[in-house]
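Structure tokens please, single chain.
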Amino acid sequence: MKHLALRLLICGGIFLGLAPMQSQAAIETIPGYYAFEYATDMPFPTSIAFSPDSTLYVATRFGEIYCLPDTNGDGFADTTIVFDSGYPLPLGIAFWGNDLYVSSSEPDSGIITKHVDLDGDHQADVRDTLVTGLPIGDHRNNGITFDAAGDLYVAVGSFTSEGVQPPLSSRILRYTNTGTFVEVMGEGFRNPYDLVFTSTGRLYAPDNGPTGDANFTCYEAPDELNLLFSFRNYGYPDCFGVGDCVDLTGMCAQPPCGVGECERNNGCEGTQPPAVFFDPHAGVTGITTGDGFRGFGSDYLFVAEFGQTVFVPNCLTSFGHRISFVALTFLGLPSANPGPFEFATGFGNPIDLTVGPDSSLYVADYGTGIIHRIIQTQPGGVGDDLANDPGILKPGPNPTRGPLKLQWEPTQGEAYLDIFDVAGRLIRSESFDQSMSRWVWDLRDRSGKRVTSGLYLARWRSSTHISRQKFLILD
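Here you go.
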């Protein structure tokens, strides 16, 4: 599906335009994980969230909110239901109880609405507007989240690139879940796209650095991950990071800025520094905890890096376009070496992510319209030190109704072959000596039962190499 460019919306350093959808490159993860396409042809997704009945909801650039149920549990969306429509640029969705809250816009102000599905058909029956009058300027109201008591938090970007901001701009705001204003949680943000609470009650928000704001040439300030404290100022518009440009020696023919050039008017004095620094123009957007994600847990944060979309003169940089993770202490504070660390690459523009009830990580890619599902396939990190070569293993026919022939290049020493279902469960495991280079699978699991139709992953490994291939089994 392609959508032609009509107009361009600039959201911080992130261009949420209507350019043609990008082609999808292969998603590469750290060893032990694998990415599938849960759903495709989503028209520029902006935010995702799971409902209490384990159904994925997706907000899109064109104002629709879709529901993507997986009714048969095979790890793929079965159908697409329009939950509601008519939102000008919904940038944040979140559930409290069974009700979906949406952060979007009217022509002249930002709003937050609540949506009730009375009959359980995954279509909104009631829409109530709870919050109005949020300022729209250079940026607007973005992501939303709830604390354990049910209060609503909304990230609001800056109104202008310079000067004093209007009362509700450049802030993290707190409301009751009925829309009553409670307090300003923090101020001095340029464009915070999302929010997340850790299991210990810490609130984090990513913030996008400048793209060369008016009269303030600070092209290479870092993007930030901020830990929220009440009544703190986080620097904008006179301080980015701790006031210095990122040193990009070797990437820029002439550094566009240097030490102290991301601070003006002593703007960093008395402000709260970032908890974690990201690459300039990485475009940090969606954030979630690792709670429930196999192999990680509550002491990790995952961040979507939308990716660099602006050209910086004399620099060969293209940061972002990836998913990264940050390490926390058991108290929910940044660890001594928090990262960010690279988790997955190959995305167009990953914009939001969440952990599903199936312990998988779901990623919405604005650039390709794909919702990815990332599963753990190698508990314990087996294969971390092996060279990955997808071409070694060749399954066929693919798709198949059975049997399936798996061939590989001859190897020195033993080889091992594991087959996983789409949920990451080990279905079959075999070992082979060096005289063997093929195996015919009868499509039966370890108990001798014929497996069901669906997508499967074969992983072959030797002492030096590893190879993974997907294949489809039909009824």
